[in-house]
Design goal:
Strand content: under 5%
Number of strands: 2
Length: 387
């Protein structure tokens, strides 16, 4: 049976979650929350440099007709590109650069390359942070989720992702959503016939987000038009200058070699608990190798990010060490997958089962009015209508 949710305007007024946050002094939280243009340049330009470098290598191997090397390089280039959604996430919070216009500039660059509508994401992700895994207010990710390793699904992500799925962006749904949004017919139409139809969870969530928010919806439409026109221009340039590899390297590499991104991205919430006021129980931090951590924009420290979202991504590891005594031990990537898969198999037998992360003895949340606003801040993510 389809669940009927309250309008989000009512949720914002009624749902007040008293989140547990690990104790930390105001001085240390301020220090960890400081933004750095130098660190921002390193992270943002570093990812783009890897994108440009693997793209150039792929093009060179293609011109030399070294087909095995070309195939490997193209897969690597796609893998680098597939992580660009994480750049949109961090830049959307506005915490990467100290200089605000640099955040906005790189947010748009990465959003174009990742076919990403940062206006829609800001609306959805604001609710995700305020009401993490409380379905009444956060339907960006609904549990339970399947950490699938089906052969055909994995094969799709090792090659060219056409259909997409959980933590996986396929060409068909991404292209369809961008075109529909650009034409002003997605997300959500308010016609009575639409309201009466049974909706898929994602469509229901889009409708809920933009109900009574026409100005924000138009911003999403305008940006979708920019994204579609940019990628169409890549095809035009390719035809005019006989650069047939250009659209593949710029526009469609986002859908190539997605498996690395999938392995790293699934554990953040999958297999955990919903409807709990403790980020340690509904988000998971994992240890990664330096390259994976860099490409994932340090979001492997995901519990810490939800707990103190004002802290820039490059300071999350420092924060994790500061509050480690009050946190679960970070999982390894293999350990997280084993935990998720065991939970998933158990949920097939007992659909109500949820994994209960072992926690240290309560340290007690520090309430300090001096830095309470910083504690609950999610940066510049929230659109004005949700501020």
């Amino acid at each position: 049976m389809k669940h009927e949710y309250l309008p989000l305007e009512e949720i914002r007024n009624k749902l007040r979650i008293k989140w547990y946050r690990c104790p930390i002094s105001g001085d240390k939280l301020r220090a960890f929350s400081k933004r750095s243009d130098l660190q921002g340049w390193f992270q943002s330009l570093g990812h783009l440099t890897l994108f440009a470098g693997t793209g150039a290598l792929t093009y060179y191997l293609f011109m030399q007709q070294l087909w095995v090397g070309f195939g490997l390089a193209l897969t690597g280039h796609g893998a680098i590109t597939s992580f660009m959604g994480l750049a949109v996430h961090e830049l959307g919070h506005g915490t990467v650069f100290k200089t605000k216009w640099l955040n906005k500039l790189f947010l748009r660059i990465y959003s174009i390359l990742a076919w990403h509508n940062f206006h829609i994401y800001a609306m959805s992700h604001t609710y995700h942070h305020r009401y993490t895994l409380h379905p009444e207010g956060d339907r960006e990710l609904l549990l339970p989720k399947s950490p699938t390793l089906r052969v055909l699904y994995v094969l799709q992500m090792l090659t060219f992702n056409i259909k997409g799925g959980f933590e996986s962006n396929g060409l068909v749904p991404v292209l369809t959503n961008n075109v529909k949004t650009a034409l002003g017919i997605y997300p959500c139409s308010k016609s009575p016939s639409t309201e009466k139809r049974a909706r898929e969870p994602k469509e229901e969530w889009m409708e809920a987000l933009y109900r009574n928010c026409p100005e924000e919806r138009q911003e999403a439409v305008n940006w979708a038009q920019v994204v579609v026109l940019f990628h169409l221009s890549m095809i035009v340039v390719a035809i005019f200058f006989n650069l047939w590899l250009l659209p593949l390297l710029v526009s469609y590499s986002y859908f190539i070699g997605n498996f690395w991104r999938y392995l790293v991205g699934v554990p953040m919430h999958c297999g955990l608990r919903d409807n709990v006021p403790d980020f340690r129980l509904c988000a998971r931090s994992i240890k990664l190798d330096p390259l994976s951590e860099f490409l994932y924009w340090r979001m492997n420290w995901h519990t810490e990010h939800h707990m103190y979202a004002s802290v820039p991504c490059y300071n999350l590891k420092k924060l994790s060490k500061e509050i480690a005594s009050d946190m679960p031990k970070p999982r390894t990537l293999l350990g997280a997958w084993r935990e998720m898969r065991e939970t998933w198999h158990r949920q097939k037998i007992d659909p109500d089962y949820q994994f209960d992360t072992p926690l240290p003895a309560p340290a007690g949340s520090v309430i300090n009015r001096e830095f309470k606003e910083m504690e609950v801040s999610i940066g510049d993510l929230a659109p004005k209508v949700l501020s």
